[in-house]
Every structure is written in C-alpha cells, then in structure tokens.
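Database export, one record per block. Field names are fixed; values are copied verbatim from the stored entry.
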Amino acid sequence: MRRLLATAVSMALLCSLTQPVSAQMRIATGNNLFGLCTSSDNAARSYCNGYIRGASEFIVMQATIRHRDPEYFCVRDTVTNDQMRDIVIKYVRENPEQRDTFAFYLVQLAIYDEFPECGK
C-alpha cells in the first residue's frame, strides 16, 4: 500500500512539474515565439532554438530545391543556433506589428531579411 501511495504521489508530482513547461511550448504566433526566445528559462530558450533551427533548415532546403543545386546554401554553416535566434528576435523586435503572425512565417521573414539570397 505504501509503495502504491508513493508511486501515485511521485507521478502526481512529476506531472505537476512538467505541466507548465508543456503548456508554454505551444508556438503559434510571433508573440509566443518571442516570449520563449527572450525568456530567462533555459528550457524555453532551448525550445525556441529548436523551433528556429527546424524552421530555418526547412527554409534553406526550399531555397536549395528552388536552385536545383545540392551545393547551394543561403545560410553559412558557421551560423550557430544562438545567432539564428538573435536574428529572429531582432526581426520580431523591429517589426512588433507582425508579432501576431504565424511564428514560422516570421522566422522565414527574418531569414530573408538577414540572408536575402534565401528568398531568391
């Protein structure tokens, strides 16, 4: 009985600890993304980096396909996740009227702004 109670308490505690993080991780708009990217919470910033990394790789892949050149990369390989996050934050900060726009679209606009060759 004690073991069952201890397991139940442990599971309840574990669920309560993870709930706020998972609730935070819903990204739909630039407002949500901006909040995660500028957070002091490491988990939120890591999630932001992962979202931007995935979106940016898709955008670069689209540019590569458009050029029909597997060697075409419009973003330098040396650009780090933190640098890409900074590029997106800068764009969103400079265009606050667009923060309610879909987050992926804002990442795309930020990349096109910083690396114009990606949009060609």
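Remark 1: The chain has one domain: 25-119.
Remark 2: The longest helix spans residues 42-67.
End of record.
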